[in-house]
From TrEMBL:
<dbReference type="InterPro" id="IPR013815">
    <property type="entry name" value="ATP_grasp_subdomain_1"/>
</dbReference>
<dbReference type="Pfam" id="PF01326">
    <property type="entry name" value="PPDK_N"/>
</dbReference>
<keyword id="KW-0670">Pyruvate</keyword>
<dbReference type="InterPro" id="IPR010121">
    <property type="entry name" value="Pyruvate_phosphate_dikinase"/>
</dbReference>
<protein>
    <submittedName>
        <fullName>Pyruvate, phosphate dikinase</fullName>
    </submittedName>
</protein>
<dbReference type="Pfam" id="PF00391">
    <property type="entry name" value="PEP-utilizers"/>
</dbReference>
<dbReference type="GO" id="GO:0016301">
    <property type="term" value="F:kinase activity"/>
</dbReference>
<dbReference type="InterPro" id="IPR018274">
    <property type="entry name" value="PEP_util_AS"/>
</dbReference>
<keyword id="KW-0418">Kinase</keyword>
<dbReference type="GO" id="GO:0005524">
    <property type="term" value="F:ATP binding"/>
</dbReference>
<feature type="domain" description="PEP-utilising enzyme mobile">
    <location>
        <begin position="424"/>
        <end position="504"/>
    </location>
</feature>
<dbReference type="InterPro" id="IPR036637">
    <property type="entry name" value="Phosphohistidine_dom_sf"/>
</dbReference>
<dbReference type="InterPro" id="IPR002192">
    <property type="entry name" value="PPDK_AMP/ATP-bd"/>
</dbReference>
<dbReference type="GO" id="GO:0050242">
    <property type="term" value="F:pyruvate, phosphate dikinase activity"/>
</dbReference>
<dbReference type="InterPro" id="IPR008279">
    <property type="entry name" value="PEP-util_enz_mobile_dom"/>
</dbReference>
<feature type="domain" description="Pyruvate phosphate dikinase AMP/ATP-binding">
    <location>
        <begin position="70"/>
        <end position="294"/>
    </location>
</feature>
<keyword id="KW-0808">Transferase</keyword>
């Protein structure tokens, strides 16, 4: 492999030229912009997209070659942080994250806490003064490294986690004490060795090399290829890989991780749309496997952070001239931005946001029309449940708008089968995961026991126009996926239910549904077009 330019992410650098987007990938490009704006971004460096295809074809380079390639940027990262990668006293831990030129939420892999080994554990404990944090990070690393790098079966890890939670009488990993987390980490090490036939790597540089390899290789994963096919994303060079200093949302009650949208991605309303988990790392929010904390809790417990997020949201919209989807971590009350990108949104929100931004003077009419390119104006509707709110059998968190009725299915394969037969289906699951992208695309609606409205799978569902309800505490899907229990009532596969994506209510059977259209926004866009050189072809605006 020939050396490639490696972009540094740190405060005080110049923003990259627009043509660098394809090379750096969207995540790193925007992080460099944020850092140049003076916003709080953890320092790091980027392995560019130009490496991706060759890396996938040839495999990882020899260790000496990789070490030489990253020596310069890693040294600069060490200088910026005052830490050293692999050092026994002041260890630097990093995240290894994907970043294609066009956003693909949850379709590519990420590994956190890279650089933590038996040798660096004591130094990390002395550095942070928090053994609980260190054992939590180690457990997370061993599990994610095993599953992402080596493709290990997640079931034994899930079983070990469930046993630890039961023994510790804990609702989640954030509730486990230090001894419980130590025991869980050691159990994960045994599982890793049993399943992989090798000991967990105790060399930080080996962890980094193979983590980078796994992230590059995730470009060719089935879910990533399926997403690109569904979204007609062609001629992309691959993904970049961003290596950044870890910040720790799992470092106590004044810490946490979250995802925010600068406007409501379902309705388009101008309000901050947040999910947040206290004492958690980012994967807890975006994975779709955990329940999240109501955003109102963040304002009550850390009002300065909440105010900071409001300010940052306006700054990002002013800079990027579009609604932003951003990830953030709070470490002991200090806010860090980990990502921003143009937010995926429903068709309804796409129309409203473009119209509102033109009215606000944030963008011009030409940019507003550009943001609406390819939108099927005639298909923009908002379906609402009529007069049945008292009859709901359960309720969850709405992750979109609209309403959907269909037969319960509990696997992506069955959802695809129903779609081929022209039968509307509601995909019901304990966890709404991006691995189920085919099922998400095939179903009319989605219902999940866990997850938040900003999880990667919920973001994809909203983009695809699916009605989605997540975090339904009254839902349990049987292990064989042949039936589920909703609020104590059993429903077999094929039973009909209705989802109200406005209220989060779930109803048995079919419910009367009305439709409305955004006539005011449609009329505004029509006036833009009529004021221009001519009506755009193929656009129809039904009268109100």
């Amino acid at each position: 492999m020939q050396p490639d330019p490696i972009q540094i992410i740190e405060a005080g650098i110049l923003p990259p030229p627009a043509e660098a987007l394809s090379l750096l990938g969207g995540k790193a490009f925007n992080l460099v912009v944020l850092a140049a704006m003076g916003l709080p971004v953890p320092p790091g460096f980027v392995l560019p997209t130009s490496l991706c295809a060759q890396w996938i074809a040839d495999g990882p380079p020899p260790m000496d070659e990789f070490r030489a390639r990253v020596a310069g940027p890693l040294s600069r990262l060490e200088q910026a942080t005052g830490l050293a990668f692999g050092d026994a006293r002041r260890p630097l831990l990093v995240s290894v994250r994907s970043g294609p030129p066009i956003s693909m939420p949850g379709m590519l892999d990420t590994i956190l806490n890279v650089g933590l080994t038996r040798a660096t554990l004591p130094g990390m404990m002395a550095l942070t003064g928090d053994p609980r944090l260190v054992w939590d990070c180690y457990a997370r690393l061993v599990r994610s490294y095993g599953q992402v790098v080596h493709g290990l079966d997640p079931a034994p890890f899930e079983d070990a986690s469930a046993r630890a939670l039961l023994a510790g009488q804990a609702g989640g990993q954030s509730d486990l004490d230090t001894l419980s987390l130590r025991g869980l980490a050691l159990r994960y090490l045994d599982i890793f060795e049993d399943l992989s036939g090798r000991a967990f790597p105790d060399t930080p540089m080996e962890q980094l090399l193979l983590s980078v390899d796994a992230v590059f290789r995730s470009w060719e994963s089935e879910r990533a290829k399926t997403y690109r096919r569904i979204r007609s994303l062609t001629d992309l060079p691959g993904t970049a890989v961003t290596v950044q200093r870890m910040v720790y949302g799992n470092s106590g009650p004044k810490s946490g991780s979250g995802v925010g949208f600068t406007r409501d991605p379902a309705t388009g309303e101008k309000r901050l749309y947040l999910d947040f988990s206290f004492n958690a790392q980012g994967d807890d929010v975006v994975s779709g496997r955990r329940r999240v904390t109501p955003a109102s809790m963040l304002s009550r417990i850390m009002p300065q952070v909440a105010q900071g997020l409001e300010h940052v949201a306006r700054q990002m919209e002013d800079r990027f001239h579009d609604m932003q989807d951003f990830e953030f971590t709070v470490e002991d009350g200090r806010l860090f931005l980990l990502q921003t990108r143009a937010g995926k949104r429903s068709a309804w929100a796409r129309l409203k946001i473009a119209v509102d931004m033109v009215r606000e003077g944030l963008i011009g009419v030409e940019e507003g029309l550009r943001q609406l390119e390819g939108l099927d104006y005639a298909a923009i509707t908002r379906r609402r449940v009529v007069g049945a709110h008292g009859d709901a059998i359960a309720k969850g968190t709405p992750a979109g708008i609209g309403a959907a009725t269909g037969a319960i299915v509990m696997s992506a394969d069955v959802a695809r089968q129903f779609a081929r037969q022209g039968r509307p289906a509601i995909l019901v699951s304990n966890d709404l995961l991006t691995e189920d992208i085919e099922g998400i695309a095939s179903a009319e609606g989605l219902l999940a026991a866990h997850g938040g409205r900003t999880s990667h799978a919920a973001v994809v569902a909203r983009e695809l126009g699916k009605v989605a309800i997540v975090g339904c505490a009254d839902l349990v899907v049987a292990p064989d996926r042949k039936n589920c229990v909703i609020a104590g009532r059993r429903f077999d596969s094929g039973a009909e239910i209705t989802l109200d994506g406005e209220s989060g209510c779930i109803y048995e059977g079919r419910i009367t549904i009305d439709e409305e259209r955004p006539y005011d926004e449609l009329a505004t866009v029509e006036s833009w077009m009529l004021a221009g050189p001519g009506m755009m072809p193929g656009i129809a605006f039904p009268s109100g």
